[in-house]
Specification:
binds calcium ion, 8% strand, globular, mainly alpha
Length: 131
């Protein structure tokens, strides 16, 4: 099964009720669009930093299966292709939400090509397909 990249630029599926089977039948582009729409809370066609943070927070708590507010190596591995050691900045063997956001916000800023502090779908697509 193709793993869902829940910690892709926009968190996929954490806020969607996609079953794995459904998700498998969708193209990457369709999954990206659904994730984008789910993250775009005010439906203005762009994701601002607040919406982005809310989206990542939802993904984070969904993946924190034991609810201790940290992601263990195992919890992260199940959902993401991000490098655990890279995320764990203070090296305490667990990844906190601020550590995730520090990493994600860099992606957000890199993806924001026109620098207006918001991401539209095209910016997300360009960024993710260039990875
Ligand atoms: Ca929005
Ligand atoms: Ca945990
Ligand atoms: Ca840490
Ligand atoms: Ca932008």
């Amino acid at each position: 099964m193709r793993p869902l990249r829940k910690f892709a630029l926009i968190a996929v599926a954490a806020t969607l009720s996609l079953s794995p089977v459904m998700a498998q039948e969708l193209t990457e582009d369709e999954v990206r669009r659904l994730a984008f729409e789910a993250a775009d809370d005010d439906k203005d066609g762009e994701i601002d930093e607040v919406e982005f943070t809310v989206d990542i927070a939802a993904a984070f708590s969904a993946e924190d299966s034991n609810g201790d507010d940290f992601l263990s190596r195992e919890e992260l591995r199940e959902v993401s292709n991000l490098d655990f050691d890279e995320l764990d900045e203070d090296g305490d063997g667990r990844v906190s939400f601020p550590e995730v956001m520090t990493d994600r916000i860099v992606d957000f800023q890199n993806a924001d090509r026109d620098g207006d502090g918001r991401l539209n779908l095209e910016e997300v697509r360009r960024y993710e397909t260039s990875q």
